[in-house]
């Protein structure tokens, strides 16, 4: 491992769905494209507000943490493959339905139509639609969650006594103040030792506390940026 | 999900330092400047004349303190910079020596570095040894803030906004592409000091829409220090996110203090030959230099409230625009700005 740190960041073409306009155009169109992208980006972040209904914390024990990274194109490709290859498998039905619903909602929102409910990333006709889908923040967030679940379902689960890859505890803190806790029945079975049960509940409550605080900081930073970019000087809040 | 490329995992390892405790902390430029601002507010406010006169006296003292702190902090900064340069050289030497690194199949840590953070396209990993865990647990209990390197701070801020996929990770391999960030992931990797094994203990994925997924490794449950590791994991990820907020105004203040010091130093430079030959004659010039510096600071303090919000907004807009355009020079500068504390 080298100790030198590179200060350069990888060159970015653009934020889709207009990746080429900024990279290929003249300086004026470049600036115009960048401004449009800023607005689109700011709007996408502002849209997150609509999605925020609750904070949901899930704690699970997994057989292994792979260190895999989320790459939207690859994740979509994998989910598309799962959608077709495991069509008859009951285990994958909820995932298939979620993928269909995400694609349908996003295409409806963008006013697009496709022959396939889940557009084929390898089909040249569907590729622009896939690019458009991946440019949508809400779709990307859903894709990430589905991808995480799909990665977990890929493991061997033949052993019924398997205690891994299970969501043991879930806490939902709703905006209106309601807090819902759900626990998996395995948490109360004999398969886990009393010590492990206590430990899991403890780390889950730790995750809820830290998750709430981290999420708040993340939102503060994002909305501060959005506010500074969107607000006109006349509507100055006076904050520096 | 795509398996990560091991060689790219440690592209940017950052060493973690810790800020001094509150009781150990000395006066900073920010503190001194805040004191000056408070006094200026009193002078501007509707107070009685003798209160204002007293505040002017206090202001003179505070400006001297500000100059002193500026000189001390500047010297410290220079010392740290020189120290970092020396450490970098020694780190390169240490890693070059065979057999001196704790190595495993997919991860490697140079000897002597107890806590490392890697950042890879929105995926952050905390690597630590048993000693590093001790140090982090102690820092966590003492509520000692970690001092994040500027570039790591910049990386986190950029990662909260978008995810850049380099051409090597794309099927077309044509160009890098940026997506709106869908979530940030933090993973803790424990390097056991005895056999050099690296084990992923816990991973959390935080989505902007409020979903948090916490994955705990089954093997880690039996580890005697699992609880400590998870606590440290949450504390560390919290510390990264708690330092997100950007305060460009603090830096503009520093630039102004730098300007004030420059005025004073240039004046001193002019008076130096006279100071050597006729010290008494040089004193009025030095006093004039000090008064000019104070004038600069007072004018800035008065202008601050009117100018700073607009300037700040303009800077943020510019930074954002640069980050998502392909002009590399502007992007580098914007990246540097985002790394400011």
Structure, briefly:
The complex is a heterodimer of chains A (240) and B (341). With 240 residues, chain A is mainly alpha-helical.
- Structurally, how many domains make up the residues of chain B? 2
Q: Find the structural class of chain A using helix and strand composition.
A: mainly alpha
Q: Provide the gyration radius of chain B in Å.
A: 25 Å
Number of strands of chain A: 3
- Tally of individual helices of chain B: 9
Total strands of chain B: the figure is: 12
Beta-strand content estimate of chain A: 5-15%
Largest interface chains and counts: A-B, 102 and 102 residues
Question: What is the overall number of helices of chain A?
Answer: 7
Proportion in helices of chain A: 40-55%
Instruction: Tell me about the largest β-sheet of chain A.
Output: 3 strands, antiparallel
Mean pLDDT of chain A: 74
Within the largest sheet of chain A, what's the order of strands? 1-2-3
Features:
heterodimer; A: 240 residues; mainly alpha; 3-stranded antiparallel sheet; 7 helices; globular; disordered N terminus; disordered C terminus; B: 341 residues; alpha+beta; 2 domains; 6-stranded mixed sheet; two-stranded antiparallel sheet; 9 helices
